[in-house]
Write a structure and sequence with these properties.
Keywords: Hydrolase, Signal. It contains twelve helices and 19 strands. With 445 residues, it is of the alpha+beta class. A hairpin with a 5-residue loop joins β17 and β18. α4 packs across α12. It starts with a helix and ends in a 6-residue tail after the last helix.
Length: 445
């Protein structure tokens, strides 16, 4: 065997990384003689997440106890995690990595809560496919769909409304693993509200009526005696139907991770959510842990007002606690290592800004937001997970991007990068659960 063959398994991934760094290099014809490999600088190895980024884990004790017990419980138990955040949450790359890691260990409890329907083009929902007819009009907490005088919103981030009879929405399991026996639908109620028919794999279930004496919000549950692959909703008449969220569960032991995110959102935008709507959603999701994942958009804002951001974060934590209950722990997920090549965003004059390479830098405001969240975790009794630390520290975005784990914007993550980050968070949670279980005295026999 030649030396070339021995080196091939190493050179292939390294050359792939180089190709990502220089995407415009002309291709070499297959019959051309191979040029010698010349490296201007040492190659950066493919990044691996750094464990041990969870701090103040003691406040997660109720959740960690359930995580340690896993499926070793007699009655069916779903461990429910509700993540609320920005585009990282909306894109579902990292939350899918967390979901998959938990479900491998604990079982498939369901897909978890999502915005109802398909709220925007490019909407992604791992494990299930959402569709809707064109009659629905959307409102959002932030973005081009935002209408200040539109339908009330919850933490799902979107509300979709129609008064057209026969308007439809459907949710389809993408595999046998995500088939479900329990379906929850949340929407606005009121005197002029209409209703929807519900069918499971074409079999009618009890319709859902949103009519009520006064305006409000509610979530309704429909169950099937056997696992189904699709639920279809159809409006019954000209009554106004405004849907905010839906959820599926398998009826078996396992974990679910709900991702409620809006592209471009900051924690301040949660103030636009109505208490009744958000409260109904959280009550239906029944979380054992809430993750608040904000900070990237705040950190990229050149006009960031840190005191206002702190006030908004404190308010968001207080609202979630009031709705979920004080026994449900909250974890703040700090922003990732993310870079900008725009001086107005990176603000190179700030002492917290870290210059990387090729004109990219980690904005100083991003470091300020991360430090703020760490401080709030201590002050408010929250857990904190250092996403930047898991990546390896400042400027590791360069290596993650070069390896195809982070996108070219040095902010968002690819499917593989999201998987690694989600698995890293899951590993830290499992380690904390194991440590907590080991510290507890053994039960008397």
């Amino acid at each position: 065997m030649t030396a070339t063959r021995l080196l091939a398994p190493v050179l292939v991934p390294l050359l792939a990384a180089l190709a990502l760094l220089a995407p415009h290099e002309p291709a070499v014809a297959q019959d051309a003689p191979a040029a010698p490999l010349t490296l201007a600088a040492p190659l950066v190895p493919v990044p691996a997440p750094v464990p041990g980024q969870l701090s103040n884990a003691r406040v997660l004790a109720p959740f960690l106890a359930q995580l340690a017990a896993g499926t070793k419980v007699a009655a069916p138990k779903v461990l429910s995690i509700l993540q609320i955040g920005d585009s990282h949450t909306a894109g579902d790359m990292v939350s899918q990595g967390l979901r998959q890691a938990l479900q491998i260990r604990l079982g498939q409890g369901g897909r978890g809560m999502m915005p109802a329907g398909k709220p925007y083009q490019g909407y992604l929902s791992w494990g299930v496919t959402a569709r809707q007819s064109p009659e629905w009009q959307g409102n959002a907490l932030f973005g081009p769909q935002r209408h200040a005088d539109g339908a009330l919103l919850g933490f799902s981030g979107f509300t979709q409304t129609t008064s057209t009879p026969g308007a439809t929405m459907s949710l389809t399991a993408d595999s046998p693993a995500t088939r479900f026996t329990r379906f929850t639908l949340c929407g606005l109620t009121g005197p002029s509200a209409g209703g929807v028919s519900v069918t499971f794999d074409g079999v009618p279930a009890e319709p859902i009526q949103f009519a009520a004496p006064s305006a409000g919000a509610a979530c309704f549950v429909r169950v099937s005696p056997v696992p189904v692959g699709q639920v279809v909703l159809s409006t019954l008449d000209t009554g106004t139907v405004s849907l905010t969220a839906w959820e599926t569960r398998t009826g078996a032991n396992g974990a679910i991770v709900a991702n409620l995110g809006v592209v471009g959102a900051r924690v301040m935008h949660l103030a636009r959510a109505d208490d009744a709507v958000a409260g109904a959603e959280i009550a239906a999701a029944r979380p054992d842990l809430v993750i608040l994942a904000f900070g990237t958009n705040e950190g990229f804002d050149p006009a960031l007002k840190l005191d206002e951001t702190e006030a908004m974060m404190r308010s968001a934590v207080a609202r979630v606690r009031a709705m979920a209950g004080p026994a449900v722990p909250i974890l703040l997920m700090g922003p990732p290592d993310a870079g900008s090549n725009r001086p107005v965003v990176a603000q190179p004059e700030r002492p917290e800004t870290v210059a990387c390479a090729n004109g990219w830098a980690i904005p100083g405001h991003l470091a300020q937001v991360r430090k703020l969240e760490q401080g709030l975790a201590t002050t408010l009794g929250l857990a904190f997970w250092d996403w930047q630390g898991a990546m390896g520290g400042p400027c590791t975005t360069m290596a993650w991007t070069a390896a195809g784990l982070q996108r070219g914007d040095h902010v968002h993550f690819t499917r593989e990068g999201g998987r690694l980050i989600g698995e890293s968070l899951a590993a830290d949670l499992f380690a904390a659960a194991d440590a907590s279980a080991g510290a507890r005295p053994a039960a008397a026999h």
